Amino acid sequence: MNKKCTGCGTTLQTTNQNEKGYIREDKYDNSVYCERCFKIIHYNEKIVTDLENINEYIIKEVNKKAKYVYFLIDFLNLNQETLNTFKSVKVPKTLIISKLDIIPKSIKDNKIINFLKEEYNITEKIIFQSTKRNINTKSLIHELEDKNINEVYILGYTNAGKSTLINKLNELENTKVEPVTTSLIPNTTIDFIKIKLNNTTIVDSPGFTLENTLYKANEFDLIKKINPKSFLKPTTYQLKDIASLIIEDKIKLKSSISNNFTFYISNDINIERVFEKNNDLENNKPIKIDIPDNSDLIIKSLGFINIKKKCTLTIYTENTDLFEVRNSIF
After folding, report:
1. pTM here?
2. What are the 10-residue block averages of pLDDT along the chain, 330 residues in total?
3. Edge-first strand listing for the sheet containing 200-204
4. Taking CA atoms, which of 120, 242, 266, 273 is between 20 and 30 Å from 172?
5. For residue 249, is it left (φ>0), alpha (ψ between -120 and 50) or beta?
């Protein structure tokens, strides 16, 4: 039987240093990690691995083999694409809103749950979870035991917190299993990894990837900034119709009327209010989006903006497929 890397799930091999799963032949028998995972864990190296058609592969395997699924989506990535992927899982499942510790305290759990059920027609159970504060973590195992489920697949988009959750469950269950590899870099987990935690088998999976993101795979500093480390602090900009907002020099927004924009994104993201008519972003062909009263403009991979007044929004950016409009979550 081929030996697999405990960190990322890929099959270990000793023949090609440029392929997934490479480990030196003299290290093969005693190593649990491939060379890539070892470098990520011990040297914080940033190594991007391209996984072709990964979303389709995950769904096919899960619908064929899984008995139960915990599907993680963090608060800033609740959108039509991620929730459609959740719906494409055809086995029994629970939706977990991860990283509870980033959600502003003013936003009540029940309000978000009711919103998701109505806006996106979610009928399954929804729970909130924080690995950092250990909220609704060990109870996930207890829930499986109560349902006599001995194996669960952990699914989610890149950086939803899957591997971190599994490592925490490993710690809480006092098992001796080596940790799976965690990193902000997309596609850290390459293939499915089975981890035995006492009476329950956890199956870690590769992360789903969004079709479009604000960042490129090698923009490590931006990826780090996008992922919040603490409670979000919503910031409101009162924008006159002569002004624009620029986000990380990648997106320029302009409203057709004076308006209020409240940002629900990482506090580390740079937002600049400008008054000049032109900048480099305006070399891109603009798109125009009609915004109803009190709506959310979703920017995939980043978060969302609550816009108070009905307007036409002009957006300059290289990637025009990042945006989605929904009713306000508030």
Report:
1. 0.93
2. 88 94 94 93 87 94 97 96 98 96 88 96 96 91 92 94 91 82 86 90 94 91 92 92 92 95 96 82 91 98 97 95 94
3. 126-128, 93-98, 69-74, 151-156, 200-204, 193-197
4. 266
5. left
